[in-house]
Amino acid sequence: VQYSICPYLAWNAVCPLVAKLKRFYEFSLRLENALRSLLEALTSPPYAPMQHLEREQALAKQFAEILHFTLSFDELKMTNPAIQNDFSYYRRTISRNRLNNQQLEAENEVNNEMANRMSLFYAEATPMLKTLSNATTKFVSENKTLPIEDTTDCLSTMACVCRVMLETPEYRCRFTNTDTMLFCMRVMVGVIILYDHVHPVGAFAKTSKIDMKGCIKVLKEQPSNSVEGLLNALRYTTRHLNDDSTSKQIRALLQ
């Protein structure tokens, strides 16, 4: 939005955009709750992670859909700096009006308190992924009677399934369009990042149950324009990539 052309026009242009940003922020809170419910269903005793994924395929699919949406949203957010610029303009305007004891109609939908919460959310490079990472970490810390391996094994199993589907010609030839390939890649990257956030040594260590070298190679075999955002997610939103336990080969693959 061109803020300098006319404050009134700029404000009227920004308000619907801020309302949309609010809906996405509120949706992230719903995703957080949904993810924790899914993790509970997919990790509860007495079944092993693979048994859960086989028995509850519909729930596993919903988990995958959430990750697909999350990575898609964050890719768009990272390539649209106007989101934060417009929101900063909105916050400046309502702050100025509060000092002048004025209240604009739009504040009824996004007041100062909500704007502050939204600002913290959109300040993250990958806000949806950050929400899910925090939710997964919180799930593990709150369920102390549940072995952490139950959660990490669920995530590593999903990563393995996606990698095998992508690298095996017999399975890959069944994909009817590139969207299915992209879906698999986003889910694979999503579960890797969640695994890296909750596992004590992360996804990149030699003891990791995720074949990181294989996963990265699968991504790099695709056209760069379709996977650069996913590779960046692995580079910049994981916790353990720069640990000493990460091999030079894996670091080199992500350079």
List strands and helices in order, with pairings.
Elements: H1 7-43, H2 49-55, H3 57-78, H4 82-99, H5 112-123, H6 127-142, H7 148-167, H8 169-172, H9 178-198, H10 212-220, H11 224-236, H12 248-253
Helix pairs in contact: 1-3, 1-4, 1-6, 2-7, 3-6, 3-9, 4-5, 6-9, 7-9, 9-11
The oligomeric state is single chain
Major sheet characteristics = none
- The string of secondary-structure elements, in order, is HHHHHHHHHHHH
Rounded Rg: 21 Å
Separation of termini? 35 Å
How large a portion of the residues is in β-strands, by DSSP E?
under 5%
Mean pLDDT: 89
Unreliable segments of 5+ consecutive residues: none
Description:
It is a single chain. 73% of the residues lie in helices and 0% in strands. It is mainly α. The longest helix is centred in the first third of the chain and has 37 residues. It is globular. This is Family with sequence similarity 49 member A, like.
From the structure above, extract its key features.
single chain; 255 residues; mainly alpha; 73% helix
